[in-house]
Amino acid sequence: MLYTPAVARLVEELSKLPGVGPKTAQRLAFHLLKVPEEEARSLAEAILDAREKVAYCRRCFNFAQEELCEFCRDGRRDPSLVCVVERPQDIVAVEKTGEFRGLYHVLGGAISPIDGIGPEELRIRELLERVRREGIREVIVATNPRVEGEATAMYLANLLKPLGVRTTRIASGLPVGGDLEYADEVTLGRALRGRLEI
Amino acid sequence: MLYTPAVARLVEELSKLPGVGPKTAQRLAFHLLKVPEEEARSLAEAILDAREKVAYCRRCFNFAQEELCEFCRDGRRDPSLVCVVERPQDIVAVEKTGEFRGLYHVLGGAISPIDGIGPEELRIRELLERVRREGIREVIVATNPRVEGEATAMYLANLLKPLGVRTTRIASGLPVGGDLEYADEVTLGRALRGRLEI
Question: What is the ipTM of this complex?
Answer without folding.
Answer: 0.85
